[in-house]
Specification:
Shape: globular
Strand content: 25-35%
Order of helices and strands: EEHEEH
Number of domains: 1
Largest sheet: 4 strands, antiparallel
Mean pLDDT: 88
Amino acid sequence: MSYHYIYSMNIKFEYMYRDGGNYKQYGEVIFSNDTNLGLSFIDEHIKNHLIDQLFFYPHQLGLKDLRYFPWDSGLDHMFHEYVEIEETAEPAKGTDVAEFLQMAKTKATDPH
């Protein structure tokens, strides 16, 4: 008897903070993909729920704030930027990507 297993790759979500001086700090989180969603679906869903398909508030999505340098109120802002997603065999360290997409749909653009 032969068994075939469908193995879904985890999803790496990459994002960054670009401060007012254009210095960049990068971060990532690995989500499981238990529902086996495709990369293009995930990418489109994320972009459709961000400000200008790029910007979001990390605390609203349960992501780490990447602002490491001292705050300059004349230049800096709270927005973080979506960079890309990719499949990975690295172990998941976050929730399932479907749950993350639901959070993006309802909270990504809310500054509070």
